């Protein structure tokens, strides 16, 4: 079930039709209880950034969304304004956003012949390997209508870039967070290709959750939890899995119960990255 968050801004029905056409079940709601039970979330939106944050606050959705994505790790896609709301701050209204992505929303400041808003078909270039870039070459085009764009502070978060006067981020992806600034516009054969793009989002992939075995401060490998062999420093493993953007890590200290102590993850916490 895909849950479309209804906070009063955006053409929800057009997004719903995309997924229904591909036999995906969709729920449109602003009900906190339904959102709290959601497996996959979409935050669409069209309009003013400050108005978007105001509507989320009026509906008491911010606390629920923070719980869902920051604590429960529920995958979420932001589309257009929804993508912008996931950033830390916007020049539109000079207001803070949800702050899930280390990025800012900025106004296009362009010279002729470039007009604002940026409106029409434009190419996207993928900047990192991702299932989202599957079957998309660097001449793939999407439809844009926006006067503000996202600027990511972390290069690794940039999934797509588009050129309009200058390069700007047209899509980001970091773990459970995905955003795109383009919209899906029905246009002959492009419709099917672009619809499939939405259904390849990380919200539809299996979650990757490695299990690491610890004995004391060392990472070990066992056979049925017997004959543990030291294979390295768990801190190095944490860094590797962070670089691979795994969803979660599970640590099992195989001697903690026998030694009547709790698992010690102080070093892991000190070295983890967001």
Helix content: 10-25%
Q: How large, in whole angstroms, is the Cα Rg?
A: 21 Å
How would a crystallographer describe the biggest sheet? 8 strands, mixed
Shape: globular
End-to-end distance: 27 Å
Q: Reading side by side through the largest sheet, how are the strands ordered? A: 2-1-3-4-14-13-12-9
Number-wise, the strands total: 18
**Number of continuous helical runs:** 8
Low-confidence sequence ranges: 186-194
- Run of helices and strands: EHEHEHHEHEEEEEEEEEEHEEEHEH
Overall residue-averaged pLDDT value: 83
DSSP strand content: 25-35%
Structural class: alpha/beta
How would you describe this structure in keywords?
274 residues; eight-stranded mixed beta sheet; four-stranded mixed beta sheet; 8 helices; 18 strands
Nutshell version of this structure?
By secondary structure, the protein is an alpha/beta fold. The protein has 8 helices and 18 strands.
Question: Can you characterise this structure?
Answer:
There is one protein chain. The protein is an alpha/beta fold and 274 residues long. It is built from eight helices and 18 strands. The protein has helices at residues 12-21, 32-36, 49-58, 62-71, 81-85, 190-198, 234-243, 266-271, and strands spanning 2-5, 26-29, 40-43, 76-79, 89-90, 95-96, 103-107, 118-123, 125-126, 141-146, 148-152, 158-164, 166-174, 177-180, 211-215, 218-223, 226-232, 250-253. The strands form four sheets. Strands 2-1-3-4-14-13-12-9 form an eight-stranded mixed sheet. The protein has a four-stranded mixed sheet with strand order 6-5-7-11. A hairpin with a 2-residue loop joins strand 15 (211-215) and strand 16. The longest helix has 10 residues, at 12-21. The protein is globular, with a radius of gyration of 21 Å. It starts with a strand and ends with a helix.
């Amino acid at each position: 079930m895909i849950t479309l968050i209804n906070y009063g801004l955006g053409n929800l029905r057009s997004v719903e039709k995309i997924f229904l056409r591909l036999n995906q079940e969709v729920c449109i709601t602003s009900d906190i209880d339904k959102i709290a039970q959601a497996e996959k979330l979409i935050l669409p939106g069209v309009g003013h950034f400050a108005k978007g944050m105001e509507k989320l606050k009026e509906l008491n959705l911010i606390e629920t969304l923070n719980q869902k994505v920051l604590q429960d790790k529920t995958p979420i896609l932001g589309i257009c304004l929804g993508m912008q709301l996931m950033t830390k701050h916007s020049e539109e209204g000079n207001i803070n956003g949800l702050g899930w992505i280390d990025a800012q929303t900025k106004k296009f400041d362009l010279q002729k012949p470039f007009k604002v808003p940026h409106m029409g078909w434009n190419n996207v270039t993928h900047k990192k390997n991702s299932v989202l870039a599957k079957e998309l070459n660097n001449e793939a085009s999407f439809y844009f209508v926006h006067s503000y764009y996202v600027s990511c502070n972390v290069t690794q978060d940039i999934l797509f870039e588009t050129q309009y006067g200058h390069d700007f981020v047209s899509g980001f992806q970091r773990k459970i967070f995905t955003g795109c600034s383009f919209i899906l516009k029905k246009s002959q054969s492009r419709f099917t290709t672009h619809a499939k793009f939405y259904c390849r989002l990380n919200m539809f992939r299996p979650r990757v959750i490695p299990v690491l075995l610890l004995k004391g401060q060392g990472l070990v490998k066992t056979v049925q939890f017997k004959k543990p062999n030291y294979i390295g420093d768990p801190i190095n493993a944490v860094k590797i899995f962070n670089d691979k953007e795994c969803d979660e890590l599970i640590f099992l200290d195989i001697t903690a119960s026998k030694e009547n102590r709790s698992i010690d993850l102080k070093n892991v916490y000190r070295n983890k990255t967001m």
